[in-house]
């Protein structure tokens, strides 16, 4: 989601052209016409143009930013390969994880490069209006796809811990329906409204004055209704839903842990059944805990952007370029964080990542052979 905090400068006497952004209002015989006066009134309290960096600064910033999509593609690629090659990871739950990794890879391939391009060119856009709208649409869509996947994962964990019998009936067919929903629904708040300029309804004068059609600029400016509706669907409602699911999971985990301790204190006669139930509970709870950490990371990374996204249209697009870019790239970095969180907080992913990075797959070592070898080693230590 490209920032909206990039508008024309306030001084109508300054006729300079600044990186694709209008920094002046047209004058005819030193007298402003009515249209120019109107534009001056509209843009007076709006944020100024983005800063113009020298070549060295632009190259340094670009070099740093380039590492983000590269590492994102690598990390999420490892996640997908790990699930494909590691039997313990081939579960219904991880179907959502793989699909989420693909979405994060799409962010790195189809969204980040355009933002880096604009940063390198001092916000000058020479790729045309269609590609500008396409990049904005993919940006909005992929963010929404990611949080919808997290919502589905929250449902999966909730069923596994709070409704285990219902979770057992979660078939591949239902998973495919949920994944289809995650990928198709975001189109209705991204491509359809953006290509029909619904986000510009009511602010046509702002667009015309701040971003003249003949200038080489690509910005994603939204009106108040679009900002609220998009933010609610793409972030606030799913976050509230995920928080509610995690609260229910936590309460159910406490209850089940109490029941297990009660059975242990009473002396359970069916030792095998009790141990199996305890092991299953620990496994599901650890998975839910990992998911909670991933959801928390997503919320923290995207929260600044969605706060600014709602506030800025309300205050007349007053927020400057720098806060927008910081909030935007903090959200992008979330696509890089998920593989790291899997590695540190999920034992199965940790083992699979180590196996892949040590190239045991290349040597023909199967995952269950590797697990058996580790088990024997632990027993002999």
Write the layout of secondary structure elements.
Blueprint: E1 17-18, E2 21-22, H1 34-43, H2 55-85, H3 93-110, H4 112-120, H5 129-162, H6 164-167, H7 172-184, H8 191-195, H9 204-210, H10 224-266, H11 271-314, H12 321-345, H13 347-357, H14 367-380
Antiparallel strand pairs: 1-2
Determine the CATH topology.
Rhopdopsin 7-helix transmembrane proteins
Q: Please give the order of strands in the largest beta sheet.
A: 1-2
CATH architecture: Up-down Bundle
Largest sheet: 2 strands, antiparallel
- Which percent band covers the strand fraction? under 5%
**Sequence stretches where pLDDT stays below 50 over 5 or more residues:** 3-31, 372-381
Number of beta-strand segments: 2
CATH homologous superfamily designation: Rhodopsin 7-helix transmembrane proteins
Q: Secondary-structure element sequence? A: EEHHHHHHHHHHHHHH
Tertiary shape = elongated
Radius of gyration: 25 Å
Q: What is the residue-averaged pLDDT?
A: 81
CATH top-level class:
Mainly Alpha
Count of DSSP-assigned helices: 14
The helix content, as a percent range, equals over 70%
SSE-based structural type: mainly alpha
Question: What is the CA–CA distance across the termini?
Answer: 53 Å
Structural domain tally: 1
């Amino acid at each position: 989601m490209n920032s909206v905090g990039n508008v024309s400068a306030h001084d109508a006497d300054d006729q300079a052209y600044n990186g694709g952004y209008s920094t002046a209002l047209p004058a005819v015989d030193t007298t402003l016409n009515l249209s120019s006066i109107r534009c001056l009134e509209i843009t007076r309290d709006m944020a100024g143009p983005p800063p113009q960096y020298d070549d060295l600064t632009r190259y340094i910033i670009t070099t740093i930013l380039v590492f983000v999509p590269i590492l994102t593609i690598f990390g999420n690629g490892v996640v997908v390969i790990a699930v494909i090659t590691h039997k313990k990871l081939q579960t219904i739950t991880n179907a959502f994880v793989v699909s989420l990794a693909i979405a994060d890879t799409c962010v790195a391939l189809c969204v980040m490069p355009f933002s880096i391009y604009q940063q390198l060119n001092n916000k000058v856009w020479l790729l045309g209006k269609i590609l500008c709208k396409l990049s904005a649409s993919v940006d909005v869509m992929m963010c929404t796809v990611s949080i919808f996947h997290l919502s589905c994962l929250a449902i999966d964990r909730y069923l596994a811990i709070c409704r285990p019998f219902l979770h057992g009936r979660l078939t591949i067919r239902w998973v495919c329906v949920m994944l289809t929903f995650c990928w198709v629904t975001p189109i209705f708040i991204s491509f359809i409204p953006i290509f029909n300029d619904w986000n510009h309804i009511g602010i046509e004068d702002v667009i015309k004055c701040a971003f003249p059609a003949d200038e080489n600029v690509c910005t994603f400016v939204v009106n108040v209704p679009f900002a609220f509706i998009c933010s609610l669907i793409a972030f606030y409602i799913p976050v509230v839903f995920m928080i509610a699911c995690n609260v229910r999971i936590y309460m159910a985990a406490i209850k089940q842990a109490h029941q297990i301790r009660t059975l242990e204190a009473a002396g359970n006669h069916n030792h095998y059944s009790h141990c199996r139930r305890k092991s299953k509970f620990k496994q599901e709870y650890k998975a839910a805990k990992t998911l909670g950490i991933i959801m928390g990371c997503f919320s923290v990374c995207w929260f600044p952007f969605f706060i600014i996204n709602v506030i800025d249209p309300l205050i007349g697009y007053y927020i400057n370029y720098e806060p927008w870019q910081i909030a935007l790239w903090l959200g992008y970095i979330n696509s890089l964080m998920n593989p790291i969180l899997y590695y540190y907080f999920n034992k199965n992913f940790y083992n699979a990542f180590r196996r892949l990075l040590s190239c045991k797959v290349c040597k023909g070592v199967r995952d269950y052979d590797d697990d058996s070898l580790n088990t024997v080693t632990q027993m002999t230590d």
